[in-house]
Amino acid sequence: MTDRPRIVLFAYSEVGCLCLEELLRLGANVAGVFTHDDDPDEEIWFRSVRDIALKNGVPVWAPKKLDEAEIELYRSLGAELVFSFYYRAMIPKKILEAPRLGAYNMHGALLPKYRGRACVNWAVLNGETKTGATLHVMTEKADRGDIVDREAVEIKFTDSAHDVFMKVAEAARKIIARKLPELEAGTAPRVPQNEAEATYFGRRRPEDGRIDWNRSAVEIYNLVRAVTHPFPGAFAYIGGRKYYIWRARPIEGEAKPGEIVSYRPLVVGTGAGLLKILSIQPEGGEEGECLR
């Protein structure tokens, strides 16, 4: 038995895995974990929260919804502290208000900037050079609660969204390691967000990856690295066929937007500069196949 506060997690993805592992490493009293079943239509590139919980003897559930039955199950766990680590559903008010030490969410950006979904992908797409992780108080309005701690990471010009996501996951782990004692003691700081600095970005869909060749080569490059593997990918139509562009880089030069300047190497004109395509895949074909 332990006299440390009982913690219940709502967790998924690599952030959920790293933060759960950190809590266990620190000897936290994790009473239960709620997670998700993997979507068979999604490329699963991250480890399993469920597997980590079960390996460590922590009860785990993956309900499709958080309805009254799930709320009653949650109550039976006697949670004193709640964390959400990349859980994909809104957590009901009845859960947020219950724990005496509060409920906290880990967001993959430096709040109040980049509230909303797909914040890492948006940051890369927008050419940001910095992002990070933020632990904040959960409220009914997503990403609006007081900030407990933040950890910044660099976005290099060569980083893909996956590269940045892994940096953000490690930043989240560092925050948990740093703040758990204060959170368990109920003494963690809470700093209100500055609404004047807030920005919001919505969910990204696969069709949002379509390339507009009138954009600059740098903007198109940012799109490519923002949605390349393991995400759905940037794409364009050439001769009526859909092609995914997985790797590219901007180079100097001029040509009409969408004009193929050369085939070996494959270089395409944009609104400003040229895009050299390094990896391409026709829909239904193999990645790397060259255009004929």
From TrEMBL:
Membrane-spanning ranges: none
Annotated GO CC locations: cytosol
SUPFAM superfamilies according to UniProt: FMT C-terminal domain-like, Formyltransferase
Gene Ontology terms, MF aspect: methionyl-tRNA formyltransferase activity
Formyl transferase N-terminal domain segment(s): 28-178
CDD domains from the UniProt entry: Arna_FMT_C
Keyword Magnesium found: no
Start and end residues of each Formyl transferase C-terminal domain: 206-286
Signal peptide region: none
Domain of life of the organism encoding this protein: Bacteria
Sorted UniProt keywords: Transferase
Entry-linked PANTHER family: METHIONYL-TRNA FORMYLTRANSFERASE, METHIONYL-TRNA FORMYLTRANSFERASE, MITOCHONDRIAL
UniProt protein name: Formyl transferase
Gene source species: Synergistes jonesii
